[in-house]
Automatic annotation (TrEMBL):
Domain NAD(P)-binding as annotated: residue spans: 10-149
Lineage summary: Bacteria, Pseudomonadati, Pseudomonadota, Gammaproteobacteria, Vibrionales
Signal peptide range in chain numbering: none
GO cellular component: cytoplasm
Membrane spanning stretches: none
GO terms of molecular function: aldehyde dehydrogenase (NAD+) activity
Official protein name in the record: SDR family oxidoreductase
Pfam families in the cross-refs: NAD_binding_10
């Protein structure tokens, strides 16, 4: 049985770990506090308490990294911590890494962004991605997600507090639902798409004005103030590569059709 360790069992990592278990994998998961251990045990995930910002040494991380595959699903930009993790990884049994990144590594280009577009070299996330690609001991696939929405992450709730506004209202949004994130990572693992770079975003790209107006109206929150501008800066993230590579059809291709029921 293929074994997988999921570093960071939070909003994305926990449902991913649960899904991997249901797909027949042996799964270990990490959290940063003892209080969260129960949530892992409840879905048959072997729990570990680890923190990328703490000490990273073989004696602390060795058992967690005794797996075939590591999925990194934490938002940290601690390059020192990741460098230390890579050193421990290179003496572990891990053969493949899936690193969850973000399309925020791309600057606005007022056009379509594919994986062939260079990321911003000043981006901390891009620099961390590069650290993983440099290793010759394991292979890394980076998946860059756009704005994460779904269960417990309703974009309309951001505007419950008054005074929050939206700039560039006619710029396109790039969003992806949690369910698609989970299934895309699962398919990368199942189909062994190693040593790759993928962008991941829903098919549709409505304007901020359309998206946030609908999101607030649905929950009875006042429509945000839109700061008008003569010029718009934007990017439209292409998902063509990942759809073709995996033969994947998005569960939520149209972000305007996403509902945000609690899970």
């Amino acid at each position: 049985m293929t074994s997988i360790s999921v570093l960071g069992c939070g909003w994305l990592g926990l449902p991913l770990a649960k899904h991997l278990v249901t797909n027949g994998f042996a799964v270990k998961g990490s959290v940063r506090s003892e209080e969260k251990i129960e949530s892992l045990e409840a879905v048959s995930v072997t729990p570990f308490v680890l923190d990328i910002d703490g000490e990273i040494a073989e004696q602390l991380w060795g058992a967690f990294l005794d797996s075939d595959i590591l999925v990194i699903a934490i938002p940290s930009k601690n390059q020192t911590g990741f460098s230390a993790l890579i050193r421990v990884l290179e003496s572990s049994s891990i053969k493949h890494v899936v690193f969850v990144s973000s399309t925020s590594v791309y600057a606005d280009n007022n056009g379509v962004v594919t994986e062939d577009i260079a990321a911003s070299e000043s981006s901390a996330l891009f620099q961390i991605e590069s650290l993983f690609y440099q290793s010759s001991v394991f292979t890394t696939t980076v998946i860059r997600f756009s704005g994460l929405v779904g269960y417990q992450r309703n974009p309309g709730l951001f505007f419950q507090k008054s005074g929050r506004s939206v700039s560039n209202p006619d710029a396109a949004v790039n969003m992806i639902h949690q369910d698609d994130c989970v299934e895309l990572i699962t398919q990368i693992i199942k189909q062994e798409k190693w040593n790759n770079l993928f962008n991941a975003c829903a098919d549709s790209h409505p304007s901020k004005r359309e998206f946030y107006t609908q999101a607030t109206q649905r929950i009875g929150v006042s429509t945000p103030e839109f700061i008008e501008s003569d010029t718009q800066t934007f990017k439209i993230i292409s998902n063509e590569k990942i759809k073709k590579a995996l033969g994947y059809e998005f569960i939520y291709p149209d972000v305007m059709q996403i509902t945000y029921d609690e899970c």
